[in-house]
């Protein structure tokens, strides 16, 4: 579907975005599996789906909810849709919203974030979500033209400590200093975490591991049981 910013925000307002991703080499690392999980999440009330990889994006492009697509590639610090080429490919695959690294770090193709967003919009009618790691990232991403700001990289870009749960402090900071809608993402492991992110000022909440990654969920229970032995 082709969404305007207002249409996308209307669908995402106070909504749950479910991130359907599996790591390379895992049993569930198959676009068909991810598409089935995405459909199950939509049946449960997910307002949007976030998926990684071109085949996965194509597999869910027929869903009647916004699809946030990204492409993890490369071995540099910037690997979430790291270049303009990647961003255009994600859009071509059918993503309504293209998620890209929204930090202030150098991008592999040498383009700035603002240049990447501007040139993507010259060729594709898509929205852009900036995956940020700090308040400074969010401020810069908003100035660069991002439609949605995310806390995805908090604790991973070297600017903020990795919190046990969602980075509530960062959510509040971005909410106070930026006007673009904020999607809380990262280490949201329970409904209580999701509610806390909303109360802190998140426009929408994205949950991945706690819903769609059985390997990690299983390990949580195993560790809890082992600790009682």
UniProtKB/TrEMBL annotation:
Record pathway: Amino-sugar metabolism; N-acetylneuraminate degradation; D-fructose 6-phosphate from N-acetylneuraminate: step 3/5
Catalyzed reaction equations: an N-acyl-D-glucosamine 6-phosphate = an N-acyl-D-mannosamine 6-phosphate
Cross-referenced InterPro entries: Aldolase_TIM, NanE, RibuloseP-bd_barrel
EC number assigned by the record: 5.1.3.9
Transmembrane segments: none
Gene3D superfamilies: Aldolase class I
GO biological process: carbohydrate metabolic process; N-acetylmannosamine catabolic process; N-acetylneuraminate catabolic process
Gene Ontology terms for molecular function: N-acylglucosamine-6-phosphate 2-epimerase activity
Keyword Isomerase: yes
GO cellular component, one term: cytosol
Pfam families named among the record's database cross-references: NanE
Keywords of this entry: Carbohydrate metabolism, Isomerase
Primary role: Converts N-acetylmannosamine-6-phosphate (ManNAc-6-P) to N-acetylglucosamine-6-phosphate (GlcNAc-6-P).
Family, similarity comment: Belongs to the NanE family.
Record protein name field: Putative N-acetylmannosamine-6-phosphate 2-epimerase
Gene designation per UniProt: nanE
């Amino acid at each position: 579907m082709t969404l305007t910013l207002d249409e996308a925000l209307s669908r995402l307002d106070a909504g749950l975005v479910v991130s359907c991703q599996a790591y390379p080499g895992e049993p569930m690392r198959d676009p068909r599996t991810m598409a089935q999980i995405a459909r199950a999440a939509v049946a449960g009330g997910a307002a949007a789906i976030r998926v990684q990889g071109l085949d996965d994006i194509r597999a869910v492009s027929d869903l009647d909810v916004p699809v946030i697509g990204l492409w993890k590639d490369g071995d540099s610090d910037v690997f979430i849709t790291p270049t303009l080429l990647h961003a255009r490919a994600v859009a071509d695959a059918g993503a309504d919203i293209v998620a890209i690294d929204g930090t202030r770090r150098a991008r592999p193709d040498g383009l700035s974030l603002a240049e990447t967003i501007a040139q993507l919009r010259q060729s594709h009618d898509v929205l852009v979500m900036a995956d940020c790691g700090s308040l400074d990232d969010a401020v810069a991403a908003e100035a660069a033209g991002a439609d949605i700001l995310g806390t995805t990289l908090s604790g991973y870009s070297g600017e903020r400590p990795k919190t046990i749960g969602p980075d509530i402090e960062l959510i509040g900071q971005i909410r106070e200093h930026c006007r673009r809608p904020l999607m809380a993402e990262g280490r949201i492991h329970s409904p209580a975490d999701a509610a806390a992110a909303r109360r802190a000022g998140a426009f929408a909440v994205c949950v991945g591991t706690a819903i769609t990654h059985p390997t990690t969920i299983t390990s949580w229970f195993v560790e809890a049981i082992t600790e009682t032995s």
